[in-house]
Design a protein that fits this description.
The chain is of the alpha/beta class. The chain folds into 2 domains: 54 residues; 237 residues, Rossmann fold (3-Layer(aba) Sandwich), CATH 3.40.50. The chain is built from 7 helices and 16 strands. The two termini are 43 Å apart.
Length: 305
């Protein structure tokens, strides 16, 4: 690609010199000049295509992301979920950035960190990233605290309070971190925000908003105690995407399209309406391939389509 562009530039310079000096056949000169322009244009197009290929965000559905997601269903937060979130950050020193913005109390300086990050292990440092301003969410200085993050945790509250972050610099950095191996976790509203098209609010009739786009399925949380089956099914119909209903005290660990259940409850999988896949109930230790729908039950070593 670079060679093509270099050759085209060289030919263009040579031909230009011929024209300026008046040497060589005029017809050849005109033809060569036209050919050089065509070659330069083709080379530039190839180069631009290559650049676009590098810069375009990788689709989280293609299985090539190197990061991990910890998607918790809300409610009482178990130590097993915290431990897995930390263990997935395979670094000697781990730095967690907490985003508490979903909570209405996040503006209160006394609110601080979620209780489970107030006394982190000795090798873990914790910082907070919070704003209600879209302008500030695009400020490079404000966003720079994400640069050294090995993990990002998005706290619970109201996921509608997070939606303004979509397409900001915060959003861009989160996608870059995830693509480079960072662990992104969240509970309740923070879990819903993982989806590309998320449930913003609603009873049995969901209102659809836009999330981070780190996950193709639509996520709903507090699933069993708040009886959200109908809401999630309608969300899958409206978006034509799969749905994941996560119980409280439960989390789904997603790495390269393989989703594993941990915690005390279940995860309910609903395929997209256009899919032939069956609905499934996953228990702790079960693993589901989100791309193929193949389920591996814990301990039996067998895969179910």
């Amino acid at each position: 690609m670079a060679f093509m562009l270099e050759t085209a530039l060289s030919l263009a310079k040579h031909t230009s010199a011929e024209w300026s000096s008046g040497c060589g056949d005029a017809v050849w000169g005109r033809r060569a000049f036209i050919h050089s322009l065509v070659a330069f244009s083709l080379g530039a197009q190839v180069l631009r295509a290559g650049e676009e290929k590098v810069e375009v965000d990788r689709d989280p559905r293609d299985g090539e992301q190197s990061g991990a997601l910890v998607i918790a269903g809300g409610g009482p937060h178990t130590g097993a979920i915290d431990d897995r979130f930390l263990d997935l950050q395979k670094r000697e020193r781990r730095h967690i950035v907490v985003i508490p913005t979903a909570s209405a109390r996040a503006d209160d300086s006394a609110y601080g960190l979620p209780h489970f990050w107030r006394t982190p292990p000795e090798d873990v440092t914790v910082d907070v990233l919070h704003t209600r301003s879209e302008h500030k969410a695009n400020d490079p200085v404000f966003c720079s605290r994400l640069d050294s993050a090995t993990g990002v945790w998005i706290a619970g509250g109201n996921q509608g309070n997070l939606e303004f972050l979509r397409d900001t610099l915060v959003h861009t950095k989160l996608k870059q971190l995830f693509a480079s191996g960072c662990v992104v976790g969240g509970t309740s509203a923070g879990a819903a925000f993982m989806s590309d098209q998320m449930i913003r609010r609603g009873g049995t009739t969901p209102e659809i908003g836009r999330g981070l786009g780190l996950l193709n399925p639509v996520v709903d949380m507090h699933f069993t105690p708040r009886q959200r089956r109908d809401r999630l099914l309608r969300a899958t119909e409206e978006t034509d995407r799969p749905g994941l209903g996560i119980d409280e005290g439960t989390a789904l660990i997603v790495r390269r399209q393989i989703a594993e259940v941990i915690g005390a409850g279940n995860v309910h999988f609903f395929p997209s309406p256009s899919s032939k896949q069956p609905s499934l109930v996953l228990h702790a230790g079960d693993k589901l391939n989100l791309k193929t729908g193949v389920l591996e039950r814990r301990g039996d070593g067998k895969s179910d389509p």
